[in-house]
Amino acid sequence: MKIKSKIDINDERFSVSLKVKNIGDMDGTEIVQLYMSPIDKASTQKPIQLKGFERVELKTGEEKILTFNVSPEQFVQYKNNKWIVESGKYQLKIGASSTDIRLEGVIELKGKDVILENGRDVFFTMNKTK
């Protein structure tokens, strides 16, 4: 998995890239899922949250690069009657499900916490497969 370790909390998007390969004997489809978990144990966020997914069709032996374009707004939580994106460290996880995590990485959202006056606008990633 390829990610930057420090992300400006005001960035529009940042990229998370990975290689997916079919190592089986048959053509198939994988649904690659991106999850986020707060590292701060005092966080009020759920311990694992789906932030994006992509269906990838692969022939036997084929590999593709998948890029999730993530918005810091996806890290929002409703706290103290406000929608807020808090700076801090978060773990990103890639897997076939929340119980089948295959890749992990840590990012740090840097900057002053952001209040989203109009609530949530961005729910999932924008994806690209090569």
Output the keywords.
single chain, about 130 residues, mainly beta, five-stranded mixed beta sheet, three-stranded antiparallel beta sheet, about 0% helix, elongated
Bulk shape = elongated
Sequence of strands across the biggest β-sheet: 1-9-8-3-4
DSSP strand (E) fraction?
over 45%
Tell me the distance between the termini.
Answer: 15 Å
Largest sheet report: 5 strands, mixed
Order of helix and strand elements from N to C terminus: EEEEEEEEEEE
Structural class: mainly beta
User: How many β-strand stretches?
Assistant: 11
Q: Low-confidence spans: pLDDT under 50, at least 5 residues? A: none
Number of helices: 0
The helicity comes to under 10%
What does the average pLDDT come to? 93
Radius of gyration in whole Å, from Cα? 16 Å
Gist of the model:
The chain is an all-beta fold and 130 residues long. The protein has no helices and eleven strands.
